[in-house]
Specification:
It is a single chain. Helix content is 35%, strand content 13%. The chain is built from 16 helices and 15 strands. The chain has a single domain (23-253, 278-495), classed as Amidase signature (AS) domain (Amidase signature (AS) enzymes, Alpha-Beta Complex). The protein has helices at residues 23-31, 37-55, 63-74, 107-111, 121-128, 174-181, 198-204, 238-248, 294-309, 327-344, 347-350, 361-371, 375-393, 429-439, 445-449, 482-495; strands spanning 58-61, 87-91, 132-137, 152-153, 157-158, 160-161, 164-168, 187-192, 207-210, 230-235, 280-283, 313-316, 408-412, 453-456, 473-477. The protein is of the alpha+beta class. The protein has an eight-stranded mixed beta sheet, with helices on both faces. Strands 1-3-2 form a three-stranded mixed beta sheet, with helices on both faces.
Length: 509
């Protein structure tokens, strides 16, 4: 089985001034031949070998192929790409690269050394832009496992938060976020079906943009969780989040969805630093159906004050459709049915049906429940979710006499500060469902609606908990308006910078 190596190789070249920075700056230096591609990759591998035993962010190394790609790029391949020479990590969950391990955090697939048979659109676009993957980042078993909100599997153990290793990175893109926060790589692939980009971005002090439905192709797959999932990235800076979107956005033949608004003609990076104008921003630092940790509430209120000071019209408001979480009954039904269908697709690899001993306990419960959901049940749930979406997105559309017509919604990203390791995996199924609901009351709505949403750190005292853990805030825009999110997030980054913060577990320490 492929696994992360330890120790330090000898005879490595030294980069000429290649230091840990954001992906945008590093790629610019590679293109200008001020940094050596081979050296940047070797340094990322060295950082991984140094830090990964502490945080367990990378669970499958691809050091060999990374070195090969770096050497090829040094010889001229993809050296002019937007991410030329930038080391990244790909999530260990349905991000296929032909010939690489496809374990998805599952013990049986790992025992069989299951491999991908083709390369998907997302991995191909990373590579075409010049990014070089050094490994696969930790995520829950088959996207769910004991809990989709935790990067803690029976196969690999827990990923630990670089800011406080007693606490979880959350998930599902937890390994990706830990790798970026600790400085192993400056940017990493992530995906989001219920908050899985935004959750770990908040917990690790990063920028996490969930793009609009249809913005990034999921080819060769059609859709995930009824159109609720999307790929993306976790990043150090807003400009890196925009850069990743420029790299990944675009259709593939046969895609089932088209974003509601086209991408900017000059790309998303060009939006960073542009004035958004005066926007109407609704803020809700609490939500009716779930308690919110006071520190998360304070962070949202501090962000509201910051945006008010930047000249926006900020007022207390919450879409009526968010007053309850009734929609989750139908979304969970879609999740379970989709997960069961996906797992059945692996039975040809196993050579038999899945059994209870083949997966984590809660995953087995959900697999069995998903198998009992009928096609009629799925269609009924999808129709109710479409109706929910129409009610929700109306809040962003001006209608005479309704008071709607907001540009952005501001909320806490999470309902809790990052809890201790084990919080989301130790317990019975009912307990874990309740705990996950407390973490994510503000997030899955926008997977259902397909709206873009971004979690950003807060460079004020309210952006850190007493335990030294980051607390992010979420901005949500109308369908297709990632450009608005990036403009405002960049304003916040400039007004209250977070780039000077480093966790105790970091490559520069």
């Amino acid at each position: 089985m492929a696994g992360l190596r330890t120790g330090t190789a000898s005879g490595r070249p030294t980069a000429t001034g290649a230091k840990m920075t954001d992906a945008t700056a590093l790629a610019a230096r590679v293109r200008a031949e001020e940094a050596d591609t081979v050296a940047t990759v070797e340094e990322a591998i060295s950082r991984c070998e140094q830090l990964n035993p502490t945080i367990n962010a990378i669970v499958v190394d691809t050091f060999g192929s990374a070195r090969t790609q770096a050497a090829e790029q040094a010889g001229g391949g993809h050296r002019d790409g937007l991410l030329a020479g930038v080391p990244i990590a790909l999530k260990d969950l349905f991000c296929p690269v032909e010939g690489e391990p496809a374990y998805q955090g599952n013990c049986r697939l790992a025992e069989l050394d299951h491999r991908y048979s083709e390369t998907g659109a997302v991995a191909r676009r990373w590579a075409e832009a010049g990014a070089i993957s050094i490994g696969h980042s930790h995520s829950p078993e088959l996207g769910g496992g004991q809990c989709p909100g935790a990067a803690e599997t029976m196969l690999y153990g827990p990923t630990r938060n670089p800011w406080n290793t007693d606490h979880t990175v959350l998930g599902s893109s937890g390994g990706a976020a830990a790798a970026v926060a600790a400085g192993i790589v400056p940017i990493a692939h992530a995906s989001d079906g219920g908050g899985s980009i935004r959750i770990p971005a908040s917990a690790n002090g990063l920028v996490g943009l969930k793009p609009s439905r249809g913005r990034i192709s999921s080819a060769p797959a059609g859709e995930g969780w009824g159109g609720g999932t999307t790929d993306g990235a976790v990043a150090l800076t807003v400009r890196d989040a925009a850069l990743a979107l420029d790299v990944l956005a675009g259709p593939e033949p046969g895609d089932p969805y088209v974003p509601a608004h086209p991408a900017p003609a000059d790309g998303y990076v060009a939006e960073v630093g542009q004035s958004p104008g005066q926007l109407r921003i609704g803020v809700s630092s609490t939500i009716p159906f779930e308690d919110t940790d006071p520190f998360c509430t304070q962070a949202a209120e501090a962000a509201a004050s910051l945006l008010d000071g930047l000249g926006h019209c900020v007022e207390q408001a919450l879409p009526e459709a968010m007053a309850t979480n009734d929609y989750m009954y139908d979304y969970v039904r879609i999740m379970r049915a989709s997960a069961t269908a996906t797992m059945r697709s692996f039975e040809s690899v196993l050579g038999r049906p899945w059994g209870e001993d083949d997966m984590e306990p809660v995953a087995w419960i959900n697999y069995q429940r998903g198998a009992k959901i009928s096609g009629a049940d799925i269609l009924a749930s999808r129709e109710r979710l479409h109706l929910f979406t129409r009610r929700l997105v109306q809040w962003w559309n001006p209608q005479p006499g309704t008071g709607d017509g907001f540009d952005l919604l501001l909320t806490p990203t999470l309902g809790l500060v990052p809890p201790p390791v084990g919080y989301l995996v130790d317990g019975d199924e009912r307990t874990l469902v309740r705990r996950l609901a407390k973490v994510t009351p503000y997030l899955p709505q926008f997977n259902v609606s397909g709206q873009p949403a971004i979690s950003v750190p807060l460079g004020t005292p309210e952006g850190m908990s007493p335990e030294g853990l980051p607390i992010g805030v979420q901005l949500v825009a109308a369908p297709g308006r990632e450009d608005v999110l990036l403009r405002v997030a960049a304003q916040m980054e400039q007004a209250a910078p977070w780039s000077g913060r480093r966790p105790p577990v970091h490559a520069t320490n």
